[in-house]
Every structure is written in structure tokens, then in C-alpha cells.
Design goal:
By secondary structure, this protein is an alpha/beta fold. The chain is built from nine helices and eight strands. Helix 1 crosses helix 9 and helix 4 packs parallel to helix 5. The protein binds BIS(adenosine)-5'-pentaphosphate and magnesium ion. BIS(adenosine)-5'-pentaphosphate (AP5) binds next to helix 1, helix 2, helix 3, helix 6 and strand 6.
């Protein structure tokens, strides 16, 4: 049966960084709603234009288009063994839609690592983040610098700072997170799926904690949804 892992946590806590490492280790697909929107913006699609109008303000893209985009993505063959979901779901409606679509695929949300850190840490991480134009590889000028400033180690493309990492936009993204996404913590906790991870550690320590918590849960029968 496919494995579905939902990475939950505020903006800049390290979901994308950890999702890449987990996907490699566990041989699962990495699906990031934010990356999918940025790809659409780059390709100037209608969805990209719509998403940009929300993302630039630090608001959430409407549920219906976000759900449809994720549904299409996780139906693809590379997701057959399972998926690390990064940034989705982000509202109760998205969580319900995910449960319904996974039930259709014969699966369920297996585990929800909830990565936390203080607002100060989130601001420091987003303000120093640099992402690659070609494929979205993520760096930090202090904590994970590229070998050569401004150039991606992996594919040599240019590094840029995300428009929504401006201080005021990050503040709004954090506010939106508390208002609209935090209810999911209670939802997944009640289902027995939530594991809390301290995100205010080195990247290596966070990865080690994530892998340890997933192993523990593997041995525990999951309650039926
Ligand atoms: P999205 O792209 O998902 O942004 P986010 O959730 O706000 O999270 P980030 O990508 O900013 O942070 P992250 O947790 O991935 O951290 P990262 O690993 O990069 O969404 C953007 C926008 O798209 C939303 O605002 C919304 O408009 C829209 N959207 C997306 N999904 C949606 C949905 N489901 N519904 C509606 N709208 C949606 O790390 C951050 C930095 O810290 C990096 O520089 C990294 O190198 C560094 N770092 C990571 N870990 C560590 C560590 N342990 N120590 C030190 N530095 C670290
Ligand atoms: Mg991310």
C-alpha cells in the first residue's frame, strides 16, 4: 500500500528542505504545492497568474484550484509508492479533500510530522533563503550556503530570493498560517497521526528526528480513518 506523509509546519520552518531528504531516503515522490504554483507562475499559465495574485500578498490560493492541482499531481505514476506532501493540506477543506482522494486511491494519510520553531527562527530562515530558478533547490546564506554565491550547486542555475520572502509578506504568511492551517494540528492529533518535531535544530538533527519518528510509527497500527 502507498505511504502518504504530510509535512505540517509554518512558513520557513524547513518543510521543503526535509521533504527532499525524506523523499530520497524513503524513495517517495516529493509534492510541494508552493513549488507547483511557482512552476505555473514561471510557465505563465492561467493557474500561475491566479496563484501569484494570492502568493504575493501572503494569502492562500483558493481551495478548489489547489485541491484540483494536487489531485492531478498525485495521480501520476511516480506517486504510486507514495508521496511526501509539503505545504498541502493547509485548510480543513483541503484536509477533507485529501482524505477523500486517498481513500479513492486505496490509501490514507499515514503520518503527519509537525515541525515547529519560534517566529524569530522563521523570519531568520526566510530572509536568508535563496532558491534556484531551474528546479527550486533551496539554500540559506548562513545555514546552508551554495559553494558559489548566487549559483545552484546542483544544476548551475541562478539563485533568487522569493518575492513572498519580503518581511511584511512573511509576517502575513505566518498570520495566515495561525488562522487557517493550525486547526489541522488538532485534526491530525485526534486521528493519532501527528508527531511533533523540533525544527529549531540543525538540518541533520531534524532529519534524524523525522526518520526516528517515522520508524516508531511504522511499528504502530494506524487507527482506521
Ligand atoms: P510554500 O512555498 O509552501 O511556502 P511555505 O509553506 O510558506 O513554506 P516555505 O516554502 O516558505 O518554507 P519551508 O518550510 O519549505 O522551508 P525551507 O525548507 O525552504 O507556499 C508559498 C505560497 O503558496 C503560500 O503563501 C500560498 O500563497 C501558496 N500555497 C502553497 N500551498 C498552498 C495550499 N496548500 N493552499 C493554498 N495556498 C497555498 O527552509 C527555509 C530556509 O531555512 C531555507 O533557506 C533553508 O535552507 C533554511 N533551513 C531549513 N532548515 C533549516 C535548519 N534546520 N537550520 C537552519 N536553516 C534551515
Ligand atoms: Mg517550501
Amino acid at each position: 500500500m502507498a505511504t502518504y506523509i504530510v509535512l505540517l509546519g509554518p512558513p520557513g520552518v524547513g518543510k521543503g528542505t526535509q521533504a527532499v531528504l525524506l523523499a530520497q531516503t524513503l524513495q517517495l515522490a516529493h509534492v510541494s504545492s508552493g513549488d507547483l504554483f511557482r512552476e505555473n507562475i514561471k510557465n505563465q499559465t492561467e493557474l500561475g497568474k491566479l496563484a501569484k495574485s494570492y502568493m504575493d500578498k501572503g494569502e492562500l490560493v483558493p481551495d478548489d484550484v489547489t485541491i484540483a492541482m494536487i489531485r492531478e499531481r498525485i495521480s501520476r505514476p511516480d506517486c504510486q509508492a507514495g508521496v511526501i506532501l509539503d505545504g498541502f493540506p493547509r485548510t480543513p477543506k483541503q484536509a477533507d479533500a485529501l482524505d477523500a482522494m486517498l481513500a479513492e486511491f486505496g490509501g490514507q494519510v499515514n503520518v503527519v510530522p509537525y515541525i515547529t520553531a519560534s517566529e524569530e527562527v522563521l523570519v531568520e530562515r526566510t530572509s536568508g533563503r535563496w532558491s534556484c530558478r531551474a528546479q527550486g533547490h533551496v539554500y540559506h546564506e548562513k545555514f546552508n550556503p551554495p559553494k558559489q554565491a548566487g549559483v545552484c550547486d546542483v544544476d548551475g542555475s541562478e539563485l533568487y530570493q522569493r518575492d513572498d520572502d519580503k518581511k511584511e509578506t512573511v509576517a502575513n504568511r505566518i498570520r495566515v498560517y495561525f488562522e487557517q492551517t493550525l486547526p489541522l494540528v488538532g485534526y491530525y492529533r485526534e486521528l493519532g497521526r501527528l508527531v511533533e518535531i523540533n525544527g529549531a535544530q540543525t538540518m541533520e538533527q531534524v532529519t534524524a528526528d523525522l526518520l526516528a519518528s517515522l520508524k516508531k510509527l511504522d511499528k504502530r497500527p494506524l487507527s482506521p480513518s
